[in-house]
Specification:
Shape: elongated
Number of strands: 0
Structural class: mainly alpha
Distance between the termini: 72 Å
Radius of gyration: 28 Å
Order of helices and strands: HHHHHHHHHHHH
Largest sheet: none
Oligomer: single chain
Number of helices: 12
């Protein structure tokens, strides 16, 4: 009876420990993987989808030539090439936070890229008026020569577009550096390849989604209302709602970035994965040693 009574006294103290092992966790490897895929979607849609599709529309809206419009993707590529080295070296101590800061920079760059639509409104009527004055000018060569290139308003818009493309490049650098390495640290070696395959598949499909959405947005007038003078998409001066996709990507990157900033530097699964990798390395070394010995005896 005393043993049974002592057992009854012990069991209540054991139950809280069991419940604590099954407590609900928010910051899990699966949650990080979902956020990482969200960062891949925002980066791929933004850069490989929206940015490439709206180049011709930006040329019409802000009267840019081909060389000026080509600087936007070039700014992104150069920024990523320079930043990725710094991120790989200095961002390894807290990879989720590094990726989160990158997403916030991408959100800021995306908003900055869409900002000229709200500040510098080059209306259809103004373009038609300029074209009319050029076509009906007596000294056509003299009066119309100043229409080529950037005006004062378009210089401000061009500056914001350039700054936005640079910030997008700064934010995209940690996606496949810090994001990939942290995913490798929290998933076991026998499962991490599956998650990598899913993420790269999402990265391949996201640009296609960006192209589709960009085409839908460009079929709508830039104000999302009725176009002036009844112009249609076949008009060479048509300007679609090129900025909507950048706002969507900015919202997605902002949500993902804020969630990643709350992640700890290490998850409990990191130690388990390290131990598994260490055991797998030891087993591999033993197998290699045995095979070398066997090959030595046979010779």
């Amino acid at each position: 009876y005393n043993e049974y009574k002592s057992y009854l006294r012990v069991t209540p103290t054991m139950s809280p420990d069991l419940n604590s092992k099954k407590e609900f966790r928010i910051f899990t490897p699966l949650f990080y993987f979902v956020l990482w895929c969200g960062s891949i979607i925002s980066q791929s849609m933004l850069v490989s989808g929206f940015l490439n599709v709206v180049i011709s529309t930006l040329q019409v809206e802000y009267q840019l030539n081909s060389a000026e419009a080509a600087m936007f993707p070039s700014n992104y590529d150069i920024t990523v090439a320079v930043t990725v080295l710094l991120v790989s070296h200095f961002g390894s101590s807290h990879k989720p936070r590094t990726l989160g800061i990158g997403m916030l920079l991408m959100a800021a760059g995306s908003c900055c890229f869409a900002l000229p639509h709200f500040i510098y409104t080059n209306t259809q009527e103004a373009r038609e008026k300029d074209q009319y004055l050029c076509d009906n000018s007596i000294n056509r060569d003299e009066d119309c020569s100043g229409k080529a290139g950037l005006t004062s308003d378009n210089k401000g818009a061009y500056g914001l577009l350039t700054l936005g493309s640079i910030f997008i490049g700064l934010g995209a650098a940690p996606v496949y550096t810090a994001g990939t390495t942290f995913c490798d640290e929290i998933f076991s070696p026998d499962k991490v390849s599956v998650y990598f395959g899913i993420s790269y598949g999402i990265g391949a499909a996201a640009p296609a989604l960006g192209f589709i959405l960009a085409g839908m947005f460009l079929s709508k007038y830039k104000t999302l209302g009725e176009p002036p003078n009844g112009i249609t998409t076949s008009n060479p001066n048509w300007v679609g709602a090129w900025w909507v996709g950048f706002i969507i990507c900015a919202i997605l990157a902002l949500l993902v970035g804020c969630a990643l900033l709350l992640f700890p530097a290490q998850l409990p699964e990191c130690e388990v994965v390290k131990r598994k990798k260490r055991e797998l390395r030891i087993q591999t070394e033993e197998v290699i040693e045995v095979r070398l010995k066997m090959s030595g005896t046979t010779t």
